[in-house]
Amino acid sequence: MPGKAPQKVPAFSKVLAECETTNPRYAVFLKSWQQHPDKDKLWQAVQVAAQADHRNPPTAPDFIGAVLSSTLPAKILNDHNDRAIDQFEKLKRKIAAVVTDADYPSDLLRDLQGFEQPLRELSRSAFDIRTRAGGRKDQDGSSRDRKAFVHRMFHYLHDACGQYLPKQVATMVDILFPGPEDTKRDLDRQVRDWLPPKPPKRVV
């Protein structure tokens, strides 16, 4: 009995064209992305990078979802950070009180276990609670949102395919946060300036 033919994967541009959303912000981003001439080249670069690093490439819907979710305004991210810091400080005060009031090691062990779940939830936050998303300056009204987007995309791409892909991230910025003052070269340089610092070399 002949085996089944492998299921054909739809072209990325087709998947992108069929995306629908009720979020008005996402709808604007999707329209710009759908009309961009380099949308398939961008997707191919992500696939090639993942395969080169021997990883399973992300699916098109997952990639689209990750990009859109990375467009959250810096203000929303920073409001989240402020709430997370407040929750963390309250937890630390509660933990300190439990430690001070404990009469026996067994009491302390029992009571501290109650803090494990809320601490795990805070530690799994996708945001760095000690860093202001997008920096502290917003030069043109959207630069903080751009920088926050770039940092989140770097984080996602490094996890998904082992590379930061600054050239492709610059393309995404051009698609989603176009600015009339930007040239392509300036945008590429700006995005590379935001790359995470390389870890120091280990001395053997």
Description:
It is a single chain. The protein is mainly alpha-helical and 204 residues long. 62% of the residues lie in helices and 0% in strands. It contains ten helices and no strands. The protein has helices at residues 12-17, 24-35, 39-52, 60-69, 74-101, 105-112, 116-123, 143-161, 166-176, 184-193. Helix 8 crosses helix 9 (166-176) and helix 9 packs across helix 10.
Map the helices and strands.
Layout: H1 12-17, H2 24-35, H3 39-52, H4 60-69, H5 74-101, H6 105-112, H7 116-123, H8 143-161, H9 166-176, H10 184-193
Helix pairs in contact: 8-9, 9-10
Fraction in beta strands? under 5%
The geometry reads as elongated
Task: Figure out the total of helices.
Answer: 10
Helix content: 55-70%
List low-pLDDT spans. Answer: none
Structural class: mainly alpha
Number of strands: 0
Main β-sheet: number of strands, strand sense, barrel status? none
- Rounded to an integer in angstroms, the radius of gyration calculated over CA atoms is 22 Å
User: Please, what is the oligomeric state?
Assistant: single chain
- List the helices and strands in order: HHHHHHHHHH
Termini separation comes to 59 Å
Calculate the mean pLDDT score and round it. Answer: 84
